[in-house]
Design brief:
The protein is an all-alpha fold. The chain is 65% helix and 0% strand. The radius of gyration is 21 Å and the shape is elongated.
């Protein structure tokens, strides 16, 4: 009698049965529609069906909405996508086909979508793990994060989020940019301290410098 090896293989979710395809299509129609409340209801229905983890089509469509206008919905979408990419050890795994399609669509993200993901970190710092999980699925994200971080016209909170994401993901190519920013911001902060009068606080130096230093420490700590 052949030895059973099922204990070595994680359980895999079954695809959505044909009998529920109508529900999925109806929920998808609402999810991609123009009305925010309808999109919320559509997303809720898809997640109640576990459709994002059982259907490659649903996972791909959700992955194309990481720049969803409503921040609350955008955050929920990213949490759901992260659950597909990195399921908990105790959870039944999504089929490989679902994960493959999801990574394919996320790999097409560009600066607009990545900026939208950073807004989630700025709005809800506790979601950084899920956001970085999604960012890590896109090979372009590292370059985009560096550009956003170095863009002095960008909102400081978004640049802070970019620095945090760089450190969390471990994008080593960002090292030179981070070191240049560190030197510049330290110089500006030192210049302010030498001024005899009380200057207006330098927001960039005060808020961004700690995030840059933390990111550098994370990158350098990962180099052995």
């Amino acid at each position: 009698m052949p030895e059973k090896e099922t204990f070595l293989k994680p359980n895999t979710l079954k695809e959505i049965p044909k009998s529920r395809h109508g529900e999925v299509l109806s929920a998808l129609e609402a999810f991609v529609g123009p009305d925010t409340q309808a999109r919320a209801h559509g997303l809720e229905k898809l997640m109640s069906l576990d459709a994002h983890r059982r259907s490659a089509m649903v996972a791909a469509i959700m992955a194309g909405h990481t720049d969803e206008p409503d921040m609350r919905l955008r955050s929920t979408i990213v949490e759901a996508l992260a659950a597909v990419l990195r399921p908990d050890a105790e959870e039944t795994r999504p089929p490989d086909r679902v994960r493959h399609w999801l990574r394919h669509i996320l790999g097409q993200m560009r600066q607009r979508e990545i900026y939208a993901l950073l807004q989630i970190i700025a709005f809800s710092p506790e979601r950084i793990e899920s956001v970085c999980c999604v960012l890590d699925a896109c090979s372009f994200s590292g370059e985009a994060l560096v550009r956003i971080l170095a863009n002095r016209k960008a909102d400081v909170s978004i640049r802070i989020a970019a620095a945090k994401a760089i450190g969390r993901i471990g994008f080593l190519d960002a090292g030179p940019t981070l070191r240049r920013m560190q030197d510049r911001l330290l110089s500006r902060k030192a210049g302010q301290l030498k001024m005899a009068f009380a200057p207006i606080p330098d927001e960039e130096a005060e808020r961004l410098l700690p995030a840059v230093l933390d990111a550098l420490q994370s990158l350098e700590g990962g180099i052995d």
